[in-house]
Design goal:
Radius of gyration: 16 Å
Shape: globular
Helix content: under 10%
Structural class: mainly beta
Number of helices: 0
CATH superfamily of the largest domain: Jelly Rolls
Distance between the termini: 42 Å
CATH architecture of the largest domain: Sandwich
Amino acid sequence: MSNKITYKYGISRPFHFAKCVGILTGDYLDVAAVPDDVAPIDGSENVYPSKEILLVLAGSFQLQTPEAGNIDLNAGDMSSSHRYKSAIKIVATADGSSYVCVTPNDNSFWDRQSGFIANGDTLEITTPAEAADAYVYVGEGGVVDAEGNPQLVGAFIRVSGGITLTATADTYFIHMWK
């Protein structure tokens, strides 16, 4: 019997996303190697931009790579914006673990940061001025914007300059821009 992770897909322009919840220890997901037509980062021979944006929502995972060894990620941690060329194995290291993986539909690279807002707290999220496009993805929890409009879990909120969010539950999010 396989313990490979199965997940649900969603598409929300301009992103494709997969959310996996309730994963058991030892379950895993394989992430493909970087395609040959992708150039390494300037000044590097073997480090590439990572288009995948992985945010751990609960529990813990281990990213297993031949070049970097094992990298542990816990709830609230996000994968790096850079990776090596080889395939990556993502293995759950705790029962009930969950994550979301967001990938741009156009295969482009987006800068990113993850964040947490505690229930009842307010946070202003500011996008760098040079960014042409920006979104906040609500991965877990719940928020309302400055006008009191609720933003659903799994929503991509377009951000122009900045946004103020108040958490209605403990909330993990991804802020991404290009």
